[in-house]
Fold this protein.
Amino acid sequence: MIKRHWNYLKYVIRHKFYVLLACSKLRFPVRYGILHDMSKFKPSEWIPYASCFYKENGESQYDETEAFNLAWNKHQKSNKHHWQYWVIIWDRGQSEALRMPERYIQEMVADWMGAGKAINGKWEVCEWYEKNKRNMILHPDTRMIVEIYLENW
């Protein structure tokens, strides 16, 4: 079981390093990368994430459980660099995106870049965004700023 946690630690550190590097490359404040995803070190996120992404023997897997889904939801709703934090789901059944402050847009873009580099070894954020943008509920101003950053990447 220690291998699961060791491999997850290596991934989180690698991801944080690449987010920091992305902040530097994009000339965003480096502190965004340093403070990025600190909540992942809390047991309420760490344990379900490690169990989702790694088997006890340390081999990679993706085993989405209710515990992981709860941890992921909590992470999104507690970390302002996730677009999901900025979506209101109204009782009437509609969703509405709020405008994200630029500070969090910058961290979000760096997060996407860092995740891609940590997982695939490539800075392929533009391709990832094109593939996933239709699933994102973003305020039009937020989307415009995201796309400006990606055009300049």
